[in-house]
Amino acid sequence: MKNPAARFAVQSLGASRIREVANVGIGRADVLPFWFGEPDEVTPAFIRDAAKQALDAGDTFYTHNLGLPQLREAISHYLSALHGPIATERIAVTSSGVSALMLVSQLIVNPGDRVVAVTPLWPNLIEIPKILGAEMVQVPLQFGHTWELDMQRLLDALTPGTRAVYLNSPNNPTGWVITRAQQEVILAHCRRHGIWIMADDVYERLVYDTAGGQACAPSFLDLATPEDRIISANSFSKSWLMTGWRLGWLAAPAGMMADLGKLIEYNTSCAPGFVQRAGIVAVEHGAEIIAHSVTRYQTARDFLYERLNALPRILSPKPKGAMYLFFRVDGERDTLALCKQLVREAGLGLAPGSAFGPEGEGYVRWCFASSLERLDEGARRLARFLEDR
Amino acid sequence: MKNPAARFAVQSLGASRIREVANVGIGRADVLPFWFGEPDEVTPAFIRDAAKQALDAGDTFYTHNLGLPQLREAISHYLSALHGPIATERIAVTSSGVSALMLVSQLIVNPGDRVVAVTPLWPNLIEIPKILGAEMVQVPLQFGHTWELDMQRLLDALTPGTRAVYLNSPNNPTGWVITRAQQEVILAHCRRHGIWIMADDVYERLVYDTAGGQACAPSFLDLATPEDRIISANSFSKSWLMTGWRLGWLAAPAGMMADLGKLIEYNTSCAPGFVQRAGIVAVEHGAEIIAHSVTRYQTARDFLYERLNALPRILSPKPKGAMYLFFRVDGERDTLALCKQLVREAGLGLAPGSAFGPEGEGYVRWCFASSLERLDEGARRLARFLEDR
User: Fold this and answer.
1) Inter-chain residue contact B98 with A265, CB threshold 8 Å
2) How far apart are CA B307 and CA B376, in angstroms?
3) What pLDDT score does B213 carry?
4) A with B: how many residue pairs have Cβ under 8 Å apart?
5) Structural contact between residues A54 and A277, judged by C-beta atoms closer than 8 angstroms
6) In this predicted complex, what is the ipTM?
7) What domain range includes position A156?
């Protein structure tokens, strides 16, 4: 039966092309999967213990819509150390980073609104405003030695009357990281025209070739006044190895919190209390996890970068952040077909670039949040596949 | 700062009047709260243990958008025993019952669509379609000895071109339970006009004065073919004392599952795996919890019903299901003010009827999922308050 009821926007939603590739590998234990954006390490024990203790203590009831006061405060302290003062009253806890993005979009996007996004981009950030009836305008990054933003092209797209610009930096899938100077130009332009900036900051702690420790990508939060039309969405998934926990947050102007609370009530009501308890421990005592991941992923990135660029037909820039190599396969016009073939014939699971917008076609995404042994075996499989072709 | 960006629909969202009353009691340990729809018992240990074991086993990664296959299968078995065969492929796991309602609305409601709801009703069921731009039409239940549905009035409201009817039975707040005969009439009418039936079935196991055990309220699932335009939303919250876990499900035509999977990806992606593991145990081994709750709540209902109706100016029908007494306070025109006064002056936390729509004004909701000792003390406080007035 075809769905006879699909909402106009749902009908036009693309099925996930990553999922389409992964489906080819179902039931095959020999496939090495690098297709999803997920670290391969279990959440550290001390974080899991906090959830278990909360369960033992009987923490199985509703919490406030905006989250446990203690967690909001912990996030406020954490963000303030990175970006300057962000008051607790500007923090809302959400049931995952993607829920945070859905909430922001419900809050600021009206049907017919013009929303600009810099692409290639994680498909959810394009599809969510579409579900709410937005008209999406995509400004592609330019591919050269690295991925670069054509600032004039972005400013031209941010016409008066534009509702919002959606930016994800460090970027999934390209690893592009916006500069402070670029942020200043965008902020000045958006202030002039009353355009909202929706910053997806979930990879802000995964930046490389820096001093480490408290290293963090440039954030609009560093520049914003508390009343600026800037909303930062974040997640526990990547910073603290908590993908499966579905916990995130928003930092927004305090004046929006009442409406955000209502929308959280109508979306998930709250995140589980015992999950939030684990979040408190992660935010307060998780600095070492971040340092461990950054060191591990930087080594993995460098290793895979060398290995891939040694192969014929492959050209990969070195990403400055996030956890993906987004590389060109020379002469490939249909990377969805290529990735399916890689699963079937080489036992290698990668994500087709076209999953991230038409600008991504010709590229392939490889998540390197993995061990060197697995990356090495993956690179071997890719090399063999390309030789045999 | 007033929110300068609110979506047209968000601006018109009412703040929760229940929350408004609860805020009066913040920081007061002496208030007896019966305002929220939440049982007062912790989730049973064997369910919490399942989550803890999953955490120990390292189950901290993403799951399928539609949920763990094992949980979908367990729900399919559970529902099939109650309602006749409901295939696993018709089940989607959601991050709470309210998320299930949001997903259904995103799936079937377009901006401008006419959606009919029977009221008084849990406010979320009115506000969610509004967020998506629906035009809501409310058909009020009639108050007499009990709450009754005026069928002709409902059918008149379900004009051709109506997109959906939202029904919640057993009903929050009134305890109204739809009859099989009424369901048959509504189903025939909706089939004729292609109108979707969205059944919020979260209280289906909380019905009283029945044989107990496998007792269940009449459900549209009993009557539906697999292709009927019927979606049933459900939750683990009330049946298995799992409010804080934020776990629910949808039973829908199989042809909608692909679109539902996409929408789940864009709303929360999945419920946490360790929460779903707890859900499996609850569904498979939770029959005794339901029996325990039904026995306990029936006793509580009868106790409170006697106590309240013995008071002057109070008239309460005896609800057939759910976990609320929704009673009239004679001569009260502003139950929001009354409920705030009750908190301040009597230390008693109840929910104003106007929180459930204009038809609810003049009534007050009391959640009786509580111990007799607490209900007794609450009734004493109410009696004293009414005497002193």
Assistant:
1) yes
2) 8
3) 58
4) 212
5) yes
6) 0.95
7) 59-286
